[in-house]
User: What shape does this take?
Amino acid sequence: MTTTIPALSPGERVGRLTGRLITPLQQGYLKDQSHAVGALARLRRGAGKDFARTPDLWGLYDTGPLHESPDGVRPLGEAELVRAEDAVHVALTLWALHQQSRGTGMHRAGTRTAPQALGTAVRRLMPPGDIDEPVRKRFVRAGNAPDLPAVAQRLREIVVLLRGADVPLDYALLAEQLYRWQEPGGPDDVRRAWGLSFHAHRPPRAGTTGAAPVAAGAAAAADDTTDLTDKDAS
Assistant: This one.
């Protein structure tokens, strides 16, 4: 019997490629390999900047797979390729900023039981059982961003906080969401995903491991009204 493997969506292709690009760089950086350390230094300079305005990064990482069309896979159209390249660029440069001077990998693929989504990571920055209002407003501002360049700049501020607290993030998932953000109706879908992961996070039980060393996560209170369209953080 022939098993049909469903074709990946463009966003899923972006996420998988981003994970494959980051993994060897992260491993090399943690081993203090000169090529990886140098690559991260160059990538960091592009954090929060538009792909078209960072030509010095062109060729630093291979996005060739986005331009290929394996058997049975529809090739990406011109507009899809632009979105894909931009999403990979933003995710890679933010990860490089996040990884700077950290002794463990800041890109960490999430699982169903241990998600590393953006909302989860932001919630881990907050004190147990409480909402840190300045952090919440930064998160809301990212959700209110009008376009991808603004999202990239506002996420940069959040990534700096995550780095300081040694809180990892799933950058493959983030890249996929950044691709979706650029599609018609995509921002609302991504905001919903970010908000759900923020509210769904629960702190580790007493006596278990896995909490961030600087900031543990907090349970979402029943009356918590965090909304990624709040106007007070626009």
